[in-house]
Amino acid sequence: MKETILDWDATKLAHAIQAGVVTSLQATETYIDHLQRVNPELNAMVEERFEQARIEAEECDRLLKEGKAKGKWFGVPISVKESFHVKGMRTTGGLIHRRDWIEQSDAAVVQRLKSEGVIVLGKTNTPTLCFCQESVNKLYGRTNNPWDLTRTAGGSSGGEAALIAVGGAAVGIGSDIGGSIRFPAHFNGVIGFKSGKHQVSQEGHFPFVTEPLQQDMLGIGAMAKSVNDAETMNGIITNTPAPHVDLNNFQLCFPPFHTFIPLGEDTQQLLLNVKSALGTSFSITEEFPFKPQTLALLWQQVMSIDAGKGISDAAFPEKGMSPIPLYLKEILFEKTSYHRFLTWALIGASLFRPRGKQVNKLVATLEDMNQWSEQKLAKQILLLPVYHRGALPHGQLYGELFSIQKTFLRYIPYVALANLLGLPSLTIPIGVDQSNMPIALQLVSRVGNEKALFDLGRILESTFRGYIRCKKWDPA
After folding, report:
1. How many CB atoms are located within 10 Å of the residue 246 CB?
2. Rounded to whole angstroms, what are the CA distances from 5 to 24, 44, 77, 117?
3. For the chain, which terminal residue's Cβ has fewer other Cβ atoms within 10 angstroms, N or C?
4. Looking at domain 2-305+354-463, which of 3.90.1170.50, 3.40.50.300, 3.90.1300.10, 3.40.30.10 is its CATH number?
5. pLDDT tens for residues 389-445?
6. What are the domain boundaries of the chain?
7. pLDDT digits over 72-130, tens only?
8. Residues 6+ apart with CB under 8 A from 215
């Protein structure tokens, strides 16, 4: 039974609990036992609440017997990204000076999930203040990819994706302002959903995003084992329920491969396979008006518009602290409280901050692009790669996205689009590369078309790879 529970998604587990096939306590104990075995190698979960989870599971089983069970996911154990407040747990952002910071209330999304009966097992690792795409910080260390420990789990929801990849919880939740759900979903082979702008409250998320253009880019959603769970979670946490739309009325857009972006052969072939499979049922176009490097540059400008002030304020509690001397001290002596990834990124945000006419041009360009997306994506879904290859060795992803040579212009365009325009995006694993590392694509459309994304996602997960639990850590 243990192996079955680990493979089930949250919806199937909830049905099994309601039917008396398993108890909430049995499911909870199964996950705890599994996590205690695999997490020392993965370092995905950085704070647990196992004893409280056991107590809550016993209470769920009692309520179920009394006919008082309520909620879509009643009695289901889940995991939560470290950046979301959970009452009685730490929210640190990976900062050493916040290691004793205990929250007194739940984040808005955690409240909503708890209202549906979930049990929180623990919280999962992120980069420092979620400010890069590799999950490593000075407080909790580095999260490893379960398919290959020498490779990145991505970020900033990297701990969450690695945990779901091994079946460490029934479902999890992440956030995404620059691929932070989609990168980890792609690298770890899980389903990921980034909500559209202002669809899900960021109340109780740390760091809280205050810059308006960056708020537009932020999305919150599931790291999951199934598209059904991603859709169910979105229905639970969203402010605006997705209307019904008919997928049959949609055109699919596969932008042509661009020589500027070095897509690997495995990624290209898998995308062509998907295009061929869907071409018999849907109208296909390749029309895509944006230059990839333009998308990447605009994303970088929005991320730098406040010179990283919000992140700096959270990172440096003492006046006069600066990322430049901290970065130099760290790379020379490794004796600071701040990972070099954070300080280098803050230096870049300051150097590349748009000013004056650049800001006006940025805002005007985004307004034009938003008008395009409202019109063109009314009945269209974009099918885009997430990254040019599967999970890279630790450190290389950061090198590609934060190089002084601006190589991010080549590597982040397809991820940048959904953030820039605040579009919902669903990530689906479609295969593996020659090293057996997962490869995914993302489905993108405008706000209001979430139902079409989920419907197409179900077709892809049943036709191609979908979620397959990494079982290499199971007992022989």
Report:
1. 10
2. 11, 19, 11, 18
3. C
4. 3.90.1300.10
5. 999 999 999 999 999 999 999 999 999 999 999 999 999 999 999 999 999 999 999
6. 2-305+354-463
7. 999 999 999 999 999 999 999 999 999 999 999 999 999 999 999 999 999 999 999 99
8. 197, 198, 202, 209
